[in-house]
Amino acid sequence: MFEVKPLPDYTKLWKISRSNVPTDLFLISDFIIKKALTFKKELANREVHVDLTCVKNRYIKYLNKKHRNKNKTTNVLSFPLEFTEEKEEFLQILEENPEMPLNLGDIFVSTDYIKTESAKLDREFSYHFLHMICHGALHLVGYNHENDKEESIMNDIEEKIMTFFNMPKPR
To answer: Residue 131, annotated ligand binder?
Structure first.
């Protein structure tokens, strides 16, 4: 199984709110998200908030259609809150107010979809679930997979995070 390992002290400032997360994955999901956030050095020594919500296929399909105009289910969706059209102005406000908490956004995970997908991939549900949380957290801090280079960088980071906790490589 996985191993919970120590994270940098500054991650104690980071708050993860969880809804409907499977009980046996409650603690490790926090560690996975926090480890992913450590790849964004600007977050060190700042209070950070992330919301993680597990949902059913019907709700993630609704979110996917509403926000991405895709009428289908998916495994994970991330919605960064602070990095909007006014990004430059927001970054200036953050720089001027380092004590201000930073709400990074929401991660929605479909446990139904991940159960089906993990069976198709012949992976344990818990590993695939945690990989998708890792993937969603990386999206919150600006990582993407819009092209081969970005995808390679994101895959490398996901692999580092998963192996850090003694889990199998995601791919």
So the answer is: no
Annotated ligand binding at 139? The verdict is yes
CA distance 19 to 164: 25
Q: Architecture of domain 9-88+97-164 in CATH?
A: 3-Layer(aba) Sandwich (3.40)
**In the block, which residue shows the tokens 């790849």?**
39
At residue 76's C-alpha, the angle toward residues 73 and 82, to 5°, is 125
CB-based contact 90:82 (threshold 8 Å): yes
Query: How much is the pTM?
Result: 0.91
Residues 17-28 pLDDT 10s: 999 999 999 999
Count CB-CB contacts under 10 A for residue 130.
25
CB environment 151-165: b (16+ within 10 A), e (fewer): eeebbebbbebbebb
CA triple 120-153-156, angle to 5 deg: 55
Rounded to whole angstroms, what are the CA distances from 110 to 41, 92, 153? 29, 35, 25
135 labelled ligand-binding: yes
